[in-house]
Amino acid sequence: MSSVWAVVPAAGSGRRMAAEVPKQYLKLNGVPILEHTLRALLACPDIRGVMVVLDPSDRRADAIPSLSDPRVSTAAGGAERADSVLAGLQAVSLEASEQDWVLVHDAARPCVSVALLHSLITACVSENVGAVMAQASVDTLKRISDDNRVVETLDRKAIWRAQTPQMFKLGELSAALSEALANDIAITDESMAMERAGYPVSILEGPSTNIKVTLPADLEFAEIILRRLNEESKV
User: Fold this and answer.
1) Which of 47, 93, 158, 213 is most exposed, with the fewest beta carbons within 10 Å of its own?
2) pLDDT of residue 12
3) DSSP 8-state assignment for residue 39
């Protein structure tokens, strides 16, 4: 029976946050973002192990309690997110089978719930197709030219905003990422690599609360969501 593993790319600098430390170490309700994310993944009984990909020079991770959990391992990250994800996959493959599933989740999405993780895992395993958590667009979308002029209005019914987690077979995702990077293709998420390699990718609608902390304003919103999730878990 296939196992499910998680890979968490956490080697980025978070330039858009304009903070003194990488955003995964900023605190929400007194706890680092990365710690919140790892706690959620470790709380999911479907996940066999978690691989966290870090900057090799990163010493801040030493203070993250969940990194000492026996189910958590670490690997050295690369220059870009795709490089780090591939490094994480290669590290997982030392213990996992190519037919195992791997769930990739952003370190800066701390509001993921166990229910969301379980729904994605169940959908992928039952249908044997990789999938992406995403949200349907509620805004009118415009495609613009280089000189900032509107070229066309897109049909928002066909537009979805990708989130993480994204889940695929370990061997297939490793091959897809390796091929894209070898051809200098800028890969922004795992689904893009899989689409480009010709694999089917499903969409699973995720909640608006599964936010990525990217800008300073996101911190306050994430704190509110986490407090609500904690309250619900106590009921």
Assistant:
1) 158
2) 76
3) H
